Amino acid sequence: MPRLTHINPAYRRHRASGQAVVSIAGRDHYLGPWKSKASMAEYDRVIGEWLANGRRPSVSEISDITVGEIIDRFWQHAKSYYRHPDGTPTSEVTNLKSPLGILNRLYGATPATAFGPLALESVRMQMVSAGWCRKNVNRQVDRIKLVFR
46 and 11 in contact (C-beta within 8 Å)? Predict the structure, then answer.
């Protein structure tokens, strides 16, 4: 049987960016520079909203974001993350363009909460109808899943 605790999520340092971060329901909230007064105030605000909502993320925060916004945020992350040691982009950045383009064209304006397995199947069928081979389709679908993680 799990042990129930009433401990708040930890205020911690994100090594790569040097910012303070707190994870609530699997989502990271970046708070600002590590150990600054502003980041600690932001931590208090985020935790306060979380506690006021019954230890659940706020519904408006989840439902407002669209698939297009998720794609844009992931694209910004991918351009800085997928790099060789010398700073040049890896081929993964190029490989992401095609599946993200199809996803954005079909579901860019759709709320992210409405995107589910049937929508992913629709994206997959679009790739198949474009003549992509099975192995390539499966890899691209895995990349789309990565975007939503």
Answer: no
Picking from 14, 22, 12, the residue whose alpha carbon sits closest to that of residue 49 is 22
Domain that holds residue 132: 67-148
Helix H or strand E encompassing 14: strand 12-14
How does residue 19 score in pLDDT terms, banded at 50, 70 and 90? very high
Residue 7 lies inside a defined structural domain of this protein: no
Q: Does a structural domain hold residue 91?
A: yes
pLDDT at 129 over 90: yes
Structural domains in the chain (count): 2
Question: How far is the C-alpha of 83 from the C-alpha of 130, rounded, in Å?
Answer: 29
User: Cα 21 to chain center, whole Å?
Assistant: 15
What value does the CA radius of gyration of the chain take, rounded to a whole number of Å? Answer: 19
pTM of the model: 0.58
Q: What is the token pair recorded at 138?
A: 């499966």
Contact 109, 121 (CB under 8 A): no
